Amino acid sequence: MGTAVAEKKTEEGKNLPAGQRDPWRDFGLMPLNRLRQEFDDLWNKYFTEMPALWNAERTDMRWAFGVEDTPDAYVITAEAPGFDLGDFDVELRGDQLVLQAKKSQEEKSSEQQSFTSTEFYRAMTIPDYVDADRIEAQYAKGVLTVMLPKTPDGKGRKIPVKG
Question: Is the pTM of this model over 0.85?
Answer without folding.
Answer: no
